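User: Predict the full complex structure for these chains.
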Amino acid sequence: MKLAKNLLVEFAYFLDASRRYKRVKTFCYNLLENDDYPYKKYFDFFMIFIILSSVTLLVVDVKHQIPKWLDNLDLYVVTAVFIVEYIIRMWVYSDVHKLVIEAYEEALFFSKPFAPLSLFKKIFKSKWEYMITPSAIIDLVAILPSYRGLRVLRVLILFRAFKMLRYAKSLTSFLEVLKNKKFELITLLTLSGFFIFIAGIMLYVFEGNNQNPNIKNLFDAFYWALITISTVGYGDIAPITPEGRVVTMLIIFTGIGLISFATSIIVSSFSERLTMLREDRIVQNLSKKESITVICGFGLLGRLVARELHKEGVAFVVIEKDEALAEMAYGMGYKAICADATNEKVFAQLKIKTNISHVLCLTSDDIVNIFIAVNIKSLNPKVHVSARCSDEEIAQKMYFANVDQVIMPEEIAGMMAAVYEGEPVAFEVLLSIVDQKDKIKMDEIEIIEHGFGNQKTLQELDLDSMRVILLGILRNPQLKDSKFIFNPEDDFMLQAGDNLVCIGHETAISNLKRKMQ
Amino acid sequence: MSAKLVIFGFGSFGRHLYKHLCDVDKEVIVVVDKKNYDTSFKHIVTPKKINIKHNEDIKALGIDEANDVVYCAMNKTAHNLFLVLSLKTLYRDLNIIAISNSFENARKLKYAGATSVIDLYEATSKRFVNMLTKPAVTKAVDEIIYNENDLKMAEIVIPKDSAIDAKRLSEINFKKHGIVLIAIIDRERGNELSFIDHRIDHKVDSGDTLVVVAKKDDFVAFGKFIAAS
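Assistant: Here is the predicted structure of the two-chain assembly.
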C-alpha cells in the first residue's frame, strides 16, 4: 500500500517535471480548445466531415443496403475517434498530477498521513465537473449509437450533428443569445405547458368518452392541444362537440398571444446582443492581426483621424464609450467597439501585449486621455501612445506619464497663425501642404536595399526630371538619433534606409515611388 | 500708426495664438466678448471688452483696413462666423484669419469672407496620421513649422531691379544659397500660385512672389542677394 502511494506521488512529480508531457498536453489542448491555434481549424474540419458522413450513412441506411465494410468503418473508426476525443478532452480539462502533488505537499506540511481516498474524491470531482458540461454530455450521447442492440439508439447519431456546434463558432453564439433570455423563455414554456395541459384535459373530458373517434387517450388530446395552440392546426384531430369547439376557440386566442410573446423575446434578445456578437467577431479577427492602431474616442478629431487612416490603409479599431458614436463608427464602415478605454478589459481582449502597436487618445477630455494613456502604458510600456491635449500643464503631466507624443490642436493653430503673420502666400502653401487638400502632397520615399536609388548620388537620381521638389533626407528614421538633412548637396550619396521627403503632385510622387522599388 | 494684430477671443485658441504672436514685433490687441469672458487669465493680458454684436464697439477698436491682421479665435465657431461677417461689412479689404473646427465650418467661414481659415482638427488629424504613416514627413514638418527651429517657410517678393530680375528659374542656383524653392506666383501667368515642378521654366520678374524653405540666416542672405542690383 505504501509502495503504491509512493509510486503515485513519484509519478506525479515525474509528470510535473517532464517537458515532453507538458508539450503533448499543450498540443492536445490547443488542438481541441484554443481557437487561436492555427491547426485547430483542420481538426474541426476533420470532425465535421466524420459527423456528416456518419449522419449520411444513417439516412442512406433507411432505404438502401450499406456495404458491410462501410458499416464497420462507421461502427469502429468513428466510435474510436469519438471515444479518444472524449478521453483527451477529459484529460486536458484539468491536471490530475497537480492535485496529487498538492495533496502530498499539504500532508507533508501539516505532518498528516497522506489520505488517498479524499484525493481520489477530489480528482473525480474535477473530472465530473467536465462530464456534466452540456457539450461533454452531447459527446457522450454521440458515442452511444455504436451499441447496436437497441434500434432507438440509432437516432442518437443525430446527436453527432449537435457535436458540430462545438466546431462552428457562429452556431454557439446563436445559442448564447438565447441563453441570455433564459428567464423569459422558461416563463414562456411554463405558460404554454400550462395551457396545453388544461386544454388537453378539457378536450379529453369532453370528447374522450368515445364521442370523438380520433381521441383515444390523453396523449391524443395533448397532441391536439399543442398543434392548436401553436397555430399550426393540422386538422387530423378536430373537436366535434360544441364544448370542444369553445375550448378550441379559447386556446387559439392564447396561442396567438404566446407566439407573439415568443417572437418578441427572440427578436429583442437578438437586437440586444447583435452589437455584442459583432464586437466579439471584431475582437477575434483583430486579435489575429499584428500591429493594430487603436483610436480611443470617436469625436470630431477621432472621426477625422479615422478617415485619414482609412485612406492610408492602416488597420485600426475605434474604441468609444458612447454607444451612439460607436454605432456611427460602425456605420461608417470602421471596426468599432463600444467599450471603456480606461479599463483593462478591452485591451486585454485585443492582446495589447503583442498585437497593438499604436494607441491614439483622442477624446475631448484631457483627463480621460491621460487616464487611457496611463492605462495602456501600465499594461505594455512598449506601445506607442500619442494623445490629444489642450492644456500645456496637462501636456507636461502626459510626458511625465511617458506618453510618446502629445499633440495640441490649439497649439498647431497658434503656430500656423503665427506663420501667417505678414506672409500670406507662404501660409497658403503651408496650408495646402499640411491639409493635403489639393493634389500637391508632401510625402516620403524610402530608399531600399536593392531598389533603384541605393548607392546613388542625388545628381544621378535627377529628381527635377521626376517633377518633384526634394526638401530633405531623413537618415536612420528608425533610430532615436534620426537626422533630417535639409537641402542636401548634389553629390550626396544615398544609402538604404534613407527617406526622401518630397513635395510634388500626387502622380509625380507615385511615379517616383514606383521607380524606387 | 504701425500695423497691429487683433485677436478676438481669449479661450484655448486665443491664448495659444497670443503666445505665438507675442514673438512677432508688432502691437497685439486682445478683444473679448463682454458676456463670456473668462477672468482667470487676467495676469497674462488685459483684454478689451466689447459687445461683438455692436458695430460701434468694433469700430472703436480703430482697426486699420490696409495693414492690420485680425484673428477670429473665439471658442465657438458660430461667434467666429458672426465676427467675420461683421468685420467684412465694416472693412471690405481687411485680412481675417479664422479658426474653424471642421471642414464644413471652414467652408462657411470662407464664404463669409475670411481671407484664410485654419482648420484646427483637420490639421491635427493629419498630424496624428502622418506620425503613424509618414514619420519622415512628420519630422520635416516639425522642423519647419512646429519646432522653434531655424528652418522656416517664407515668401520673398522680388524687388525692382533685382539681381535675378528677368532671369529664368533654371539660371538661378538656389542650392548654392541653401534655399529650396517650393512655389511661385508668376505675375506674367496671372496671380495663380503654382508649385515648382520643373516643367515650366518661369521667368522671374519684379513683383513675383517666391515661396521658399530655408534656414533663417540663408534666407536673410538670399534676400540681400536678390535685392542687390
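Chain B has two domains: 4-124, 151-227.
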